[in-house]
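User: C-alpha cells for this complex, please. No commentary.
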Amino acid sequence: MSEFAPTARTEVRRLPQRAVYDREAVYRILDEGLVCHIGFVAEGNPVVIPTGYGRKGDTVYLHGSAASRMLRTLGKGVNVCVTVTLFDGLVLARSAFHHSVNYRSVVIFGRATLVEDREGKLDALRVFTEHVTPGRWQEVRPPSDKELQATTVLALPLQEVSAKVRTGPPVDDEEDYALPVWAGVLPLSLTPGLPVADERLPAGTEVPEYVRRYDRKRP
Amino acid sequence: MSEFAPTARTEVRRLPQRAVYDREAVYRILDEGLVCHIGFVAEGNPVVIPTGYGRKGDTVYLHGSAASRMLRTLGKGVNVCVTVTLFDGLVLARSAFHHSVNYRSVVIFGRATLVEDREGKLDALRVFTEHVTPGRWQEVRPPSDKELQATTVLALPLQEVSAKVRTGPPVDDEEDYALPVWAGVLPLSLTPGLPVADERLPAGTEVPEYVRRYDRKRP
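Assistant:
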C-alpha cells in the first residue's frame, strides 16, 4: 500500500484517527471532487479562491484565463495550499456538543509550475475536461491555438498531501443514549438534476449517455 | 438595496459582470452553504481548512475544539479569508474552451475575535446548529459548562465581502452553434438521502420533520 509520507505541514495532529495518507484513498477523494479551494498569500494576506481541477497520476492540473491575477501569481511558483472537500452527511447526536459531519477532505501543499508546451497544455485540458465530465473531450471542438494561448495551465505535484475522513454514526456520551432524541446520519451528496438543453440546440439532439447517467461517485 | 462596499481586496476584477455585493444575495449564499474554507498564513505558508459555520446578521461564527491549533491561531486576530462555494451545475459548451460551471461563491476577508462570555458562546452555538439543521437546537441536550469551556467560538464580521455568481446556459462562439454536439446545463445540488437511524435509537423513535424534509435551498 503506497502512502504519502506525512511532513510537518501535512501531519494531522487534531483527531489523528481521521488521518489518511494512503495514495489510492487520496486519489479517490480528488477524483470525486469537482471544486478545489486554492489558498495563497497576496501582499501578506491569505486568499482562498474556488476553482476546478483535474488529476493525472501524482499531478493536479489547474487552469484559467491567462488574464487571471491568481494564475499569474501561482505561476510564479509561490507556496499554495489546495483543499478538496466532499460533504457526505450530517451527524445528528443527542447532545449539541457531539454533532458532527461526515466528510472526506484532501489538503495539498506545494508550488505549482506553468505547463507551457502545446502538447502538455492540451493533455492537461483533456484531463481537466474528463475529470469534470468523463466522455466529453472526444465530442467537443478542441481548443484552437489562440484559445490555448489564452489559457494558463498549472501543474501541482502531489507530494505533501494528507486526507481526513469521518464516517459513521454519532458518538454520544453514555448517559445521553437514554434521551428521547432522534439521532443518526442524514447522508448528503452532490446529485444531478435533469439536463437543461441549450435553447439553440437543434431539435432532436440527444442527451449523451455520460450526461444522462452523470454520477460523481468513484469505484 | 444595501450593498457591501468593494475594497481593494474584494473588488472582483476578473469577469466583473459576475460580481455581487448585494447584502441579501450574500446572506442567501452563506445561509445555503454548509462548509466554508478558511485560509490563513502559518509560518509564512497558506493553509486552507474546511469547517462549518453559522451566520447571524453581519457576523459569521466559527467554532471548534479549544485544542485546535487552527482556532488558537485564528483567535489571535490574524488575517483570514473565508470562502463559501455552492456548486450549481456543469455548463457544457460546444467547444472545450467555453465549458464552465454555474456556481455561487462568497469571499470574506477580515480578522476573527474570540467569543468568550457564556451567553455569547451559547448563542453562537445555537446559530451554528440551526444553520446546519434548522429545528435541531430545541431538541438536543444543550452544552454543559464543561463542554462550553472545551469549545472555542470565533466571530468574523461581514465587512469586506464579495460574491461571484454564474448562471445560465453556455456561451459559444457563433460558428460553433452549428456543431452537432449536445450543449446545455447539468444542474447539480447537494441532496439528502434517506436518514440512517443510529443503532442504539429506541425502536419507534420517529424521524423529525426537519430531517425528513431537509433542504438546503433558501427562499
